[in-house]
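User: I'll paste a sequence; please echo it back and then give the predicted structure.

Assistant: Echoing your sequence first, then the prediction.
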Amino acid sequence: LRHLRKDTGAGASYLDTLPGRRVAAQGAITGDAGTLAVDGDTWSARVEPGAPEVAPGDEVTVLRIDGATLVVRPLPRIDWEADGA
């Protein structure tokens, strides 16, 4: 609709705000499939090529939107209980 009205003064859309967001995964996300809830909306999601799979509860960063799918990267996990040896 914005293109029809030739409105060039419009601000960023909701989709423009998604890249860079950090979100906790409710379920597993692989390179092929997964889902992610962002602001109450459920999106299809997949990890970027070469990235490890995401386990439920892991945090991810949204990299980009590919069609109707969020491409994400898992944040590094710190094992606070790991032995420093």
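Residues 25 and 58 are 6 Å apart (CA to CA). The helical segments are 2-5.
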